Every structure is written in C-alpha cells, then in structure tokens.
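Re: your question from the hallway

Yes, I did run it. Sequences:
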Amino acid sequence: MSTTVAVVLFVGVTAYALFGGADFGAGFWDLLAGGAARGERPRAIIDHSIGPVWEANHVWLIFCFVVLWTSFPTAFSSLTLTLFVPLTIAAFGIVLRGAGFAFRKVVRRTRDRRNFGAAFASSSVLVPFCMGAVAGAIASGRVPAGGVAGDPWHSWVNPTSLLGGVLAVAVVAYLAAVYLVSDAHRLGDATMTEYFRRRAVVAAVVAGTVAFGGIFILHADAPFLFHGLTHRALPLVVASAVFGVASLVSLLRGPRREPRALAVPAVACVVLAWGVAQWPYVIPETMTVSATAAPSGTLEAILFAAALAAVIVLPALGLLFVLDQKSLLAGEGGTDDAVVPHSGTA
Amino acid sequence: MVLAVNPVAWARSQMAFTLAFHIILVPLGVSWAFLTLIANYRAVRHDDADALLLAQRWSKYMAVTFAVGAVTGTVLSFEFGLLWPRFMGRFGGAFGVPFAFEGLFFFTEAIFVAIYIYGWRRLSPWAHFWTGVPVVVSGVFGTISVVAANSWMNSPSGFTLDSSGKVTKVDAMSVIFNKGMPLEAAHMVVAAYIVGGFLVASVYAVGMLRGRTDHYHRLGFTIAFTVAAIATPIQMGVGDSLTRWVYSNQPVKFAAIELVPQTSNDVPETLLGHLNSDGTVTGGLRIPGMASWLSDPSTGTATVVQGLNTVPVTDEPTIAQDNTVHLAWDTMIGLGTLLFLLSAWYGLAWLLRRKVPTNRWFLRVAACCGVLSVITMEAGWVVTEVGRQPWIVYDYMKVEDAATGNTGVWITFLAVVALYAGLGVTTILVLRGMSRRFRGETGFDETDVPYGPSGPLPDATEPPGVAGAGADEPHEVPAR
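Structure:
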C-alpha cells in the first residue's frame, strides 16, 4: 500500500509541475513583458490564461504536503529540518505571488497594478527556483535521515540543486509559453500568438539545453540519480526528449494545437523520470518508501481522501471550465448595461 | 554566520503570529458566503435590486479575503514542517490525517467561489444561487477538519505507540472524531458566524453613522447583524459545555482558566486578578463558590476543582502562561457577554417594535462590535493554545521537543511580521478602494476580482505599445 501512496504522491507532484508550473511560467513572461504600455497585451493574454483556477493549481502543493507529512512523516521532518531556507523563501514567495495576483485584478491605478504585478511576477520565478533546488537536494541525497538536520546551505546550494532550480524555471517558462500560444491563437490575436510562439521556441531550446547539460552535472554530483535515469527511467527520459523535440518542431511550423499536446507529456515525463529514477527511495539511499511509510490506517485514510477528491473536485472543476467557455446570458450581454435584477422567470 | 538563538520561543511566536493573522480571515471565508446567499435569496425571491447589488459586491470582497486567507493558510502548512519538524516526524501520521479532508473541502470551496462569481451572468438566478451552497457547506466542513486536528492535540486518540515512542498503528476515524472535536469544532464554526457577521455589520454601521441610511446600507447591516445576533446566544451554550469538557479532560488548563493553585472545593470565580510565583492569587474580584458551582451545578459549591500543583512543575504551564490564560479567558467572557447584551438589545427592539434599532448609540456600539468580536475570538484561541502548554500533544509530547533546531527562526519571524503587516494593511486598503469605486459605479462587472473571469482584451487592432508601430521590434525576443 505504501507503493500506491507513493504513486499518488508523485501524481500530485506531476500535477503541480504541470498546472502550478504553467501558472509560474505565466508569471515569468509577465515579468519580462516590459513596461505598462508595452506589456499590456501580453499581460491581458496571461490573465486570460491563468483564468479562474489559479488557486486550484496551487492546491496541488498542499496535496503533496499533506500526503508527505501523513504518509512519510519522518521524510517530511528530515526535509523541513534540512531545507529550512529554500522552503521558507518559497513560502514567502507564495504569499507575495498569490496576494499580488489577487490584488492586481482588483485595483485600477497603473501604479498599483505595476507594484502588485511586480510582486506576482518576481515571486513566480523565485518559487519554482526554490522548489527545483529542493528537488535537487532530495535527488542528490543531501537530506540525511533520522530527524537530523543536514547542512542548511550546502544542502541546496550545490550543482544538482542549481540545476534543479534553473531547470524548473526554464521548464515552467516553456510550458507557459506553449499554453499562451494556444490561448492567444484561440482568442484570435495573431500578434500575440507570434509573440508567444517566438518565446516558446527560445524557452524550448533553453529548457532542452539545460536538461541535456544537466546529465553531465548529475553524472558527477548525483551518481545514484544518474544511474536511475540512464537505466530504469531511460524510456521516460527518451520519451521526454522525443516529445520535447516534436513540440519544438511543431512550434517552428506554426501555432497549431500540437505544441500543447506535446509539451505536456514532455514535462510530465521529466518529472516522472525523476520519481522512477530514485525508486524505491523517498530520499535516495537513506529513506525507502516502505521503511518511512506511516501505519496502514493513515495510508488508507489518505487513499480514501484522494479518491473522494477525484469524485468531488473533478466534476466541479469541469463545471467551472464549462462556465469559462459559456457566453453571458441574454440581457446580461457584454455591453455592461445597468445591472438587470434577477427575475424569477429569466 | 547568523546569530544563533534558541529557536523554541521564536518558533512559538511565529506560529502564534501567523495563526492569529489567519484566524481573522477564516470567519470571512466561512460565513460571508452564507450572508451573501441570504442577500442573493432575497434578491431573487423578492426582486430586490439592492439585495442583488449587495450579494454581488459581497461575493467580490469575499473573493479577495478568500485569496489572502488561501496564501496565509498555505504558509501554515509550510510552518508545520519548518517550525515543528520533530512533531510532524513523530505524529504526522495521526495529526496530519484531518488535513487530507481539510484540503479536499478547501479545494471544493475555492472552485465553487469561482463558479459562484462566474455564474452571476452565466447561469439562471436559481441555478446560480445553488452554486453558492457548496461554498457554505465546504466552509463549515473545512473548519471542522482543521479544528479536529487542533482538538486532537488537546485530546489525542486513535494511535498506538511502541516502546520507543514510535506511532505503530493509526485509526483515522478515532483521530478525526477525537473526544474534544465535537464541542471545539462547534465552538469555532459558531465563532466564525459571529465574527463574520459582526465584522460585516460594523462596516455598514459606520456607513449609516455617516449618513448613508438608504435601503442598501440598512439591508447590509440587518443581514449581517441578525446572523451574528442569533449565533451569539448559541455560542454561550456551546462555550459552557466546552468549558465543562475542559474541566473534566484538561484539568490543568481549567485550573489556569480559573486561577486555582491548589485543589479544593468552593472555588471562587476570580475576575481579573493575578497568580503570584508563591502560588497565591492577589487582586481581582472574587465571587465565592462560583467557579465550583459553574463546573458542575449538580454538586454546587461542593464541586472539587483540581489545582495547578497537582502535576509536576515541568508538566504545568509557567506562572506567566497561567496569567495569560486567565486574562484571555476574562477577555473572552467579558467581551462575549457584551456582544450578547448587544444582540439582546437588537432582538428586543425587533420583537417590541418590529424594527431594527437605528439610534446613534446603538450604531456606535455596533460599529465597534467587529473589532470586539475579533478580540474575543483571539482571546478564546489563546486560552486553548496557551492553556495546553507545555504540551504540543497533551500528555505525549512537549513543545520544546517538537521545535526545529534551526537557529535562524528569529529572522524568519521578523520577516513574517513585516510581510504580514504589509499584507494586512494592503488588504484593508484594497477592500476600501473597492468599496469607494463601487459607490461611484453603476452596473456589474465580475472581471475585476480574483477567481472571476478575465476582462475583454485590449483592442487587438492597436499596436501593442505606444512606440509599437514597428511590427518586429528586436526587443521582443527574450534572449536574456
């Protein structure tokens, strides 16, 4: 059963990387969109793209935390003891990001929008970097077992963590740019489609280069992970590369549906490859999944909650997406005329 | 390197500060949706345009406070690990379980907040009304789940320890439905309705004092104040039962509440007053026998109350903590009684004259009741938490054994205080700015709110910038 929970946990990590990641990446492009006038249209597309479920995307992080601290409590404790600094920075970044995004939608003055936008956009880069660094610390086995704190700095300031951080930022930027191409295309905005298509190409090349170059870093700095990636997880690594190259080719050919359908599996395969490569460890070479797992009563409750979430949350999300696509009711049309009081017969 | 300071006090301060901040946003997230639905119902049922406007605006304010509550709640989940890693490492398998369900309810609530805001102009009025109901329901269940985790710390159950103190068996049902849960959860849910109601009502009381006594403002005040005024007497019953539960199950906490140094019967109820280090109580007003009588009316003043000195000194709260608990208790009871009297005034005026009191003195007091109810709730929470000291898991694990070893916590504490001060001030300014803007605006637009849809795109036929006429600006390529 601990294996099932570990799979559920990694599904959560992958979902966070895909959904939360695309959100972070959108913030990255927001940051680079330039001044208030020049950046107005890209930012409008970004707002559209982040859309109604910006909060829901980040619930995946909470999901991962809850699964981790209930089902693998000692691993969670080792992580938080050792990686105090990057996790604290990430938490602060999440506050700035969430509040900045919410406030920016509400305020009207350009100066306020710029300040809140800056808080949102800069923390959108900071948080994935920290998360990547944390992943690097775990993957390179720098988190000791048994409730002992590892080195507070070298645990996450090291080649693998740096690779993880840079790769995380590059990947989310790539993912978001591909989403934004589709969204701009769907909105019929040719200029912005082209704008984001160019950025998606650059981001794809950067992400691919970092990922490829990273293999050499892992060879030297995280041999266990390197071995896993080149053996057990090799099919996933190859699949990711194939999807990645295919998405790049399709981006170069124009803004169609394929880039999005190819970029998502490319990123998912990278994250899953990490998980498969370090199996059976939660934290490589010290804490295995089965040895750190909580008693079966806990695991059953977690699996039950996860199943319940699938039954309750997914249909609700579906309803929201339907509403997002649905046009306004007759009489409440886009001209923003005076509010028509609801009448029982409407 | 950074200054190394014992992290326990700082970790405790940081947790207390971030929780104290978050707990103000909680009532708004839990009960504002209910208030909004009342206005929404009235709007649809009685074709009341003011009620509709109220419901629409409330749904927007609610979205902002919900968004801020979501991030401060996320910080708390980081802090469980960052500040209390040894607690989570040992008891995460039990303590953590209610959070799996809390996450589920929070997820549902967040999605339906968005659906409700989307639905204003996309769904039929009644269908839209019903999409608000899951927000109310999941808010209540989310609160119950979080409080279940807290009450588990007060009355831990549902786990088995081996000889080394490792949790070897967990019964999730007994963890969630621990003995303290029903009353503690009820106390918090009702508190959320009291604080949310009074906070919203106080804003409209201020508006009415400033001369905005139109139907819109009176309606906003009446809906919110009525909900709080109904919840307040209920809370007195729930609180009374909970206190008796504490008397039976956490006698040391009860002794701190009532300032009882030695076990005895005929214990007086001490209002204010101070416990000294030699175990004597000085000052304050004493009502003879009252604490005993309240603890169990069936045995009256003969009821024996266990004293603070019945546990080893290392297992009891410090003198300063005892005094904090007692003062917080007096604050909660005092302000709670005041709020009850105000509710009674309101209720009587309505019963006798069939009308909401609108005289200036009533409105002046009502304008303060938002802040007062927040203080009452914070005081009650101080009683729960400080009264449990030195334990983090009552009778199983002490706070000092749970804390992180990271000596830089004082830095994160200071940073968090600065960050939240900014966040709090900004939230209030943003809400006030929204209110001012709404006043000068006609019509409804749901695109200017978190969780809402995006507004129309800037005109696509115009070039993207002032100097954007050159279609292929080289700076568009992010070569950096």
